[in-house]
Amino acid sequence: MTVINTPSAQRQSWRQLRLWLWLNRCTRIKIACVGMALICLGLIAPAQAADDTARPQAVQAGPDRDLVVRVLPEAPDVFSISPARRSAGAWRIEGPGGLAGLVASTAKVSGSVGYSGQPIDILVGITPDGRISGAVLMKHSEPVLTLGISDEDIERYVNGFAGYDLKSVQVEAFADSSQLPPIIARATVSTGVIRDAILRTARAVALEEGVVSAGGAGIDRTTYAPKTWQALVSDGSIAHARLEMDEARRGFGDIAIPLPEAGDPFIELWAAILDPPTIGQNLLGAQAYSRQMASLPGNAMELFVGGSGFHSYRGTNYVQTGIFDRIAVVQSGTEYRLRRENYVRIDKLAITGAPPLTEMSLFRFDASQGLDATQPFEIVVRADRERSDGATASITQPLTYRLPETYVLATSGSAPRSETPLWISAWERKPATIAIVGLMLVMVTVIFFAQEAFVRRPKLWLYTRTGFLLFTLFFLGWYANGQLSVVQVIAFFHSLLNGFRWETFLIEPVIFILWSFVALGLLFLGRGVYCGWLCPFGALQELLNEGAKRLGIRQIEVPFAVQERLWAIKYTLFLLILGVSFYSMERALVMAEIEPFKTAISMRFMREWPFVLFAMALLTAGLFIERFFCRYVCPLGAALGIPAKMKLFDWLHRRPQCGRECRYCETQCTVGAIDPLGRINPNECVLCLRCQVIMCDASQCVALKRRAGRGVEGGHLSPPPRPTMEEKSA
Q: The pTM is what?
């Protein structure tokens, strides 16, 4: 390749460059302005008016016979509706003969949240003998249910819960059972969440209303009376212990670091058994209490511990060791250590009159541990300090607790409870899949860490990349359903605004693992670590285009000046979807259908013909322009490309001759991510490493050809050298 460097040619080149930079800057400013306007519009739009008109409120306001009969088919002709005693979002249906049944909302009772991060609201009917009489899906924002599964399939699924006995053996959310409708194929997570929400809500309300008897060590879990903090302390429901600073100072003796002279207590402790509704619901509030009780294993109990003062009963060692070394429960000479897996942090209480507590915790005890909640026990807090002579001084502060007799039953029933949280059940379902995905991520990591040795072998790179893309498509995409989507990005944004919950994202292990890896990849490598290697639809496009080239289909070369303007399309689409989601998540999910991922990967082209036709059109365009969708349309790529500028390392090498004396890599880049100056745009690069292979191949790289012709370095360079100061200034 010969470059003619005349003064007029140089001036023309610089004028074109300045024009490109100016237009590119204008395009970015326009995108930013449009995005900010849309986000502001979404924030001020009356989103709640569109999405939160839940029918349960209409049920509470007045009799809605059609809706009640759908969930309680045996409801009498004349009935009245009244709120349940404790659970907000539950109602008692009374007929002439007494209780005709219960109706409960999963969103309000158990706080059920789907994979989209938005509530799933289902009305559940419960008969007086403790059976589910029916269920109606009222509102959801699940992507696969919005435009993937027919309304008839969803209605058939929720109707299948009719007749389930809440007193029967617990069935896990994803397990097969003849008592429950089977999980819908291609919507495993969403329908598993629906099953879990229905069962948890029905059990919680049935227990609270006394329709089924409560399990546990003889604790009354049905009776409720509103009480203040002071009333619960007065009757012994909440126990209290306090160690003053002067007492602690005398107990430690001569220590290396003296205690402060402040008048605050050294330790102040409050504790209560949470299971009785009069205690637990008054402390936590109706919804939080129902959610905690519905998730308890059978015959388990929860202990509330609150503290203030100079010494923390939690400490920080439990984060590394998994065991709380400062606090223990002692009963009849047996010490029960508190573990992190049975711990839930509480940030605020619903009760009035509570003192300011600096730390609040819930600790769960299974029946297998042997702790009897109906018998007295001690909560012992220990504090250690170093003496002046180097020895360790220790003091303990016990708190004796005994559950008041008013909460103890003479006999106990056996209402089964959920043994395993929903997200744990999801992870236990597919250990082999998780392991294989983990190996894929390890392999990608090794490829990039050993990049220099890898790209020096063109055949190894070609065979490895082709094989990896095939495995990504067939295993990760069509088998494991590991296709990421812009919907998950939107759900993450909303979870940050509305209360982040890890359980929402943990219920799909493959997606969670991929997103965790992508988050790290954005810091180290940019967006290409996913788009170029782990995206099933991207793999499908690249493999089809490679086949088209082998069949002789001529490729369309898009000029760089045109291409960088087409890039704006995907960023605009992403900002539009994000902005609309603040107004209506349902409409945002419809807009997200611009992604053909659900059609081509999740549902394997088994959808209505308009969706299949759209996906085929994008794939057809990709036969002539490699990765057409990835380049210009993909909103997920835009969402990942925006933070790509934050990557910490630049592992892709360039030569001083790139863009000046040679533009071969630019013509070979499959996504046009190399500009006329030879620079790689991290927002668009998919890290295929093709340019790195060319740079290390003496048969392709012009610089190496010239050096080989002059007898320099034998034609190969590993790794490509960094430019010298003279070359930079040239």
A: 0.58
